[in-house]
Every structure is written in C-alpha cells, then in structure tokens.
Amino acid sequence: MAFRIPGIRRATSFSASKGTNVPKGYLAVYVGDKMKRFVIPISYLSQPSFQELLFQVEEEFGYDHPTGGLTIPCSEDEFQNLTSELSGQ
Asked: InterPro entries given for it (predicted)?
C-alpha cells in the first residue's frame, strides 16, 4: 500500500545518488538499512525534531557519509512519521 506525504519525495532508484534530480530548496537523504533515498525540503533542517535526528546522525556517522549524501540512521517508517508531522506544521 502506498501513500503520499506532502513535502517529501522518494527517488525511484538508488542510481540517482549523484545529486541530480534534487530540486532547488530540497535535500537528498538516505534512510534505513536499505539506504532508500528521499528528497526533503530544506525547511525541515530548522525544525527541532529534525535537528534531534541530525544530532543522532552526527553521533553515529560523524561527517563521513559513504553514499555522498546525508545518511539517516532510523527506520523508513520512523522517518516517514517524522516528515509527515513536519509537513503538517
């Protein structure tokens, strides 16, 4: 079952990781064990709940992200729950 969350876009393939297909004002992130790529609005970066998630990212990965993009160490479901809350604000 698929559903759409306003403000978040999911890349159709991992091969798009070269930084292409990211619209102005958005940021590509990689989420979960399968490293699924999402494109989120940069406005999320100023939200306290997203900043807490970024703090966890810093503690787990530091500034070395093997995909070349920002890696988020949470499940895909947790990430989608957070972004759905942020899109509703």
From this structure: SAUR_fam
CA atoms within 13 A on the CB side of 43: 8
Residues, the chain, total? 89
Please provide residue 49's backbone torsions phi and psi, each rounded to the nearest 5 degrees: -65, -35
Report whether pLDDT(34) > 60.
yes
Q: How many CA atoms lie within 13 A of 78 on its CB side?
A: 10
Give the pair of three-digit tokens for residue 86. 């942020």
Tens of pLDDT, residues 35-55: 899 999 999 999 999 999 888
What's the rounded Cα separation, in Å, for the pair 77 and 61? 20
pLDDT digits (tens, 9 = 90+) for 55-76: 887 887 676 666 667 888 888 9
In sequence order, which residues have a C-beta less than 8 Å from that of residue 74 and are 6 or more positions away?
31, 32, 53, 56, 82
